[in-house]
Design a protein that fits this description.
The protein contains 11 helices and 9 strands. By secondary structure, it is an alpha+beta fold. The chain has a 7-stranded mixed sheet with strand order 1-4-5-9-8-7-6, sandwiched between helices. Strands 2-3 form a two-stranded antiparallel sheet. The chain starts with a helix and ends with a helix. It folds into 2 domains: 86 residues; 229 residues, Bira Bifunctional Protein, Domain 2 (BirA Bifunctional Protein, domain 2).
Length: 336
């Protein structure tokens, strides 16, 4: 049997040396080490050897197997090296490389991260809620009457189930108050949906960031100071801010906020950026009914909301809101 093993080893090593590619090398492996290979067949004869010869033959069998396996690995390495060399043959290593294009954040992502960062530093926590909402969370709890235009099917996307795509992220404020106890200080960035005609300043899906602060003795001065600080941190310390009386069903008193911005080559002008106000007591009553307790009845608070798309347009002087959704690399590369 020792002579048989020596013959197998010699033949195997010769076959391995003559293999020209990985396919022929694999055929050699199967011929000698496969289930029906020469070495496998020889090892089956171990059972017929006298007991005293088995240890020596077993050791010899292992040595032959190890020698064949080592030779196979070495040949694989040589074949791989040859294939790698062939793949770069003729390649001029002195040619200059080509710069890879660098990506960047979308302007809406940039403005969102900047706004969230400022408000987080002011103590506001992030909150989120579903984009498919109930009328209660989107309208009823926010003191929106049945005949309000926003509740009309011409203005809002309704489902057959009666649910709707939220028209603002104010619904997150209601869900937060349902689940938490005061004080509440949250911001809710996210998408909102309305049946607006798409033009240079309107989209049917847009991005909002709304905030809510509820506690004991929250005042209008707190609201004014918070938003003035935010807008100056967003657009610069020299930014002028004004509050105009307005009406929203869920706040009383209510205001719209303008900032005066100087666009390059243009006269300074006031631009509306947000709406805000003190939370209407009717909102706290709706939340109390939903919760089944009165923990919010003695609270005061303020809420605000702004369009992130509008902030981006102001920040970079973008004239057409549709540019933000067209994915034109020529436009987006300006913000990379």
């Amino acid at each position: 049997m020792k002579q048989q093993l020596d013959t197998i080893q010699v033949n195997a090593l010769a076959a391995i040396a003559g293999a020209e590619d990985e396919r022929s090398l694999e055929e050699v492996r199967i011929t000698f080490l496969g289930k029906k290979g020469s070495l496998t067949t020889a090892s089956a004869g171990m059972k017929d050897l006298p007991k005293e010869e088995k240890p020596a033959m077993g050791q010899a069998l292992n040595e032959v197997r190890q020698a064949i396996q080592a030779s196979l690995e070495q040949k694989r390495t040589e074949l791989q090296a040859a294939r790698d060399a062939a793949s770069v043959e003729g390649l001029d290593m002195t040619l200059e490389g080509r710069d890879l294009a660098r990506g960047g954040l979308h302007p809406l992502t940039e403005i969102k991260e900047k706004a969230v960062s400022i408000l987080r530093r002011m103590g506001f926590a992030l909150a989120e809620g579903p984009e498919i909402e109930t009328e209660f969370h989107c309208f009823d709890a926010l003191n929106t009457p049945q005949d309000h235009p926003a509740r009309n099917e011409k203005d809002t996307f309704y489902f057959d189930s009666g649910k709707l795509l939220r028209t603002h992220t104010s619904s997150v404020q209601i869900r937060t108050m349902e689940a938490a106890k005061p004080p509440v200080r949250i911001i809710a960035p996210g998408s909102a949906y309305r049946r607006d005609e798409i033009d240079a300043t309107h989209l049917s899906v847009f991005h909002q960031l709304e905030g809510l602060y509820v506690d004991e003795n929250v005042t209008l001065g707190d609201l004014k100071g918070t938003l003035e600080y935010f807008l100056k941190a967003m657009f610069g310390d020299s930014t002028e801010v004004r509050f105009r009386p307005h009406f929203f069903p869920f706040t009383e008193p209510s205001f719209e906020i303008d900032v005066k911005l100087q666009a390059k080559g243009e006269e300074p002008k006031w631009i509306e950026v947000a709406g805000c106000g003190m939370v209407d007591p009717a909102v706290f009553s709706a939340v109390s009914t939903s919760r089944g307790d009165q923990v919010f009845e003695s609270m005061t608070g303020f809420a605000f909301g702004m369009g992130l798309d509008r902030l981006a347009m102001i920040q970079w002087g973008i004239k057409d809101i549709r540019l933000l959704i067209e994915n034109d690399v020529r436009f987006l590369s300006q913000f990379g």
